[in-house]
Amino acid sequence: VRAVTTMRNGGVIVELDSEELAEWLQGPSGCTLLKEQFESTILFCSCTFALVLEYLSIHLQLKNIDFLRHVEAKNDLLADSLTSIWWIK
Fold it and tell me: Considering the chain, what is the average pLDDT of its residues?
């Protein structure tokens, strides 16, 4: 494991130091073993992005997971590559 980051929403991002370990964890046996260690849902992302956007409408439903999927689709990002979004001042 190269780095572990705890997110504001309670999620955890784990940066692995080998592609082989990442592939094993995303495979059926590795995924099952990892899920058994946690009580909550596990979501695998091959990479995540931090975005800073100016002039977002205050009417956007930022807490809605469908909004993240919509942003990914409209911007040709990998599915589940955006993990959270929040307002900044």
Answer: 81
Contact 72, 81 (CB under 8 A): yes
* Cβ neighbours for 15, distance < 8 A, ≥ 6 positions apart: 1, 2, 3, 4, 5
Tell me the H-state helices in 27-74: 28-35, 65-74
pTM of the predicted protein model: 0.46
Rounded Cα–Cα distance for residues 48 and 13 (Å): 9
Residue with tokens 């992302």: 45
**Helices 28-35 and 19-26: crossing angle, nearest 10°?**
80
Q: What is the pLDDT of residues 19-45, one digit of tens each?
A: 888 888 888 888 888 888 877 777 776
Comparing C-alpha atoms, which of 11, 78, 89 is closest to residue 49? 78
Q: Are 48 and 13 in contact (CB under 8 A)?
A: yes
